[in-house]
Amino acid sequence: MQNPIPYGDLFPAVREASAAELRYFSEGYDVQIKKDRTPVTSADLAANKILVDALQKLYPEIPVVSEEFDKPNPETLKKAFFLVDPLDGTTDFISGRKEFTVNVALVEQGKVVLGIVAVPALNELYYGYRGEAFFAPLDDAGLLNKRTLHVQDRYRPFMPGRKPRVLVSVTHSDSCTLDHLRKIAGVELPVGSSLKFLRIADGFANYYPRNFSLHEWDIAAGHGVLKAAGGNVYCFGTENEVGYGQKDFVCPPFEAY
Ligand SMILES: Nc1ncnc2c1ncn2[C@@H]1O[C@H](COP(=O)(O)O)[C@@H](OP(=O)(O)O)[C@H]1O
Ligand SMILES: [Mg+2]
């Protein structure tokens, strides 16, 4: 295990990136379509610059991988690296929905150890590091009103007699996840972005299956918070925790609970 990281030093940059996104959200922004045919806005790029600059200044020895920045060969990232998604839920953002997030995770030896997720338009900040997770209002700069997050419900997939509260994407669906949701027959709760992981950590829901590959930056920070709160994210249909630094930063289908 590496030395503990003073992750609180990152909160000012997370707040600054959040404030920038809110300005674009209310005042307008440009949208471009990337090579992978997903959208990126001027808000994604502005937040990305704030976060990447801060990470490189604060922790010059730790490489940064970001959806909107650098995607080195994962094999060069043996020890530790940051995974950043400056604006997860870009489609929600463009639709005027408030469920978009700022995401920073730290991966050590292939496992997520730190997750920081801000939800600018809902004034929420979640963070978790090595077994301790917290919620605080995002504008509570002194963290005077932080509270501990700990999952209460030990739900596991297909528990007999249980009808889970299941998180589903608002904007993306795929046939494999839809088939699985039909089998589960739970109460479906549409929530945008990486906020879904936090809605398990805060007890609103208990299960988030995705039988489809996303990118590691989409899930790492939410995973970090959920894991520190006592939950976890597993490769779909297994009890193996999702790891990071895989080829092209593509993560496997997963279940969070
Ligand atoms: N079918 C799909 N194709 C491409 N990207 C997808 C996808 N489904 C989900 N994603 C990615 O997953 C992220 C969260 O989506 P969701 O709200 O559906 O959980 C989005 O990240 P970004 O907004 O950072 O691009 C989106 O790009
Ligand atoms: Mg994303």
TrEMBL record:
Alphabetic keyword roster: Magnesium, Metal-binding
Record's keyword annotation contains Magnesium: yes
Domain of life of the source: Bacteria
Cofactor: Mg(2+)
InterPro entries in the record: CysQ/Inositol_MonoPase, Inositol_monoP_metal-BS, Inositol_monophosphatase-like
GO molecular function: 3'(2'),5'-bisphosphate nucleotidase activity; metal ion binding
Catalysed reaction equations from the record: adenosine 3',5'-bisphosphate + H2O = AMP + phosphate
Binding residues for Mg(2+): 67, 85, 87-88, 218
Keyword match Metal-binding: yes
GO biological process assignments: 3'-phosphoadenosine 5'-phosphosulfate metabolic process; sulfate assimilation
Protein name, UniProt field: 3'(2'),5-bisphosphonucleoside 3'(2')-phosphohydrolase
Organism: Hallerella succinigenes
